Amino acid sequence: MSEWREVRFNDVIDLNPRVKLEKGIDYPFIGIADINEGNFYVEEGQQIKFTGQSGSKFHSGDTLFSRITPCLENRKIAQSVLKSKDKGFGSTELLVFRAKKGKTDPNFVNYLAQTDIIVLPAINSMSGASGRQRADSNYIKKLKINIPNLSTQKKIVSVLSAYDKLIENNKRRIEILEKVAEEIYKEWFVRMRFPGYENAKFDRGIPEGWKVSKLGSLVNISSSKRVYSSDYVETGIPFYRSKEVIQLSNGEIISDMLYISNEKYREFKEKFGVPQKNDILLTSVGTIGVPMLVRNNNPFYFKDGNLTWIQSRSNASLANYLYYWIKSGVGQQQILASTIGTSQSALTIENLKRVKVIIPDDTVLSMLNNLFSDIIENISNLTTQSQNLIRQRDLLLPKLMNGTIKVK
Rounded to two decimals, what is the model's pTM? Predict the structure, then answer.
């Protein structure tokens, strides 16, 4: 390992380097909430006028490192990708890592920041009131780390970025497929240009043969058997909360997965049933109305209360239609109008059952299902590919970054 050497963090990486922003100018803004655990990159989400407010300031390509608990433990760490301007600002709870020219590669710094080499010492340096502890930037600056020469850094980046490019490509393809499906839904059921619409007769605003039904009369709607923290195990059957459903709906990577034992899963399956292919999970507390269509029968369980279980009764045509109805503007409007609560909104099972939905006739549903089934299968395959790529990358990452695996 002659090309590797021990150095101080601050000798090869700038922490919170100076960035000059002009007051009154709009710049890209990135908050901690914009950084998704498991994603190594974060794109600008919005532009905000800079008025001199405190916070992190960075250039595109800098790595943003959450310093506050529990964001640091959850590894909200990502390289900034700015498009509208080459610099921006963000949350006060973000540290900025920048590669030093001639000593470190920006992408290498990003990968290094994801590893225990940096994260664990940063966690150990935390101080402050319980629940609001922050990593000590001065402690991080003094860390001793082993890094290779710049040429080897670039080779390591080349290996890891090959995975990330494939993952990103799959994500873009999934986004395109989702947009295609959503556009088909709008064309057929919002603009009412479904196959045969030219000859359709309308009665009270909907085609003859179609009907308006309460959701509760179409599907079974329920929650789950309560799972306690004492039921969690290190490995077993995945356990979904709103967090995981939202991540999946955004094509993101599920991080910090919880598990229950195979025995507990079998108990719930026998006594209460478990989600099956073509069922839908719907977020019902806080962030309401995000659906997840179950695309296969791979086992998992879900959190009671914050997720509602919509059982399609094995009707794929209806399930596909309802999934995209929920995602549509009409569906979202009706669901959000049915919530209760002021400080924190919630969607009750009884209110959801009363939501009214326009249901097309069987012929139109069947034609829609033929289109959507192919799209959904492709999305499922791409998602599986990405998850496998992520596992492989994450297995390689620490070994490449500590020199266990050498690159040529």
Answer: 0.81
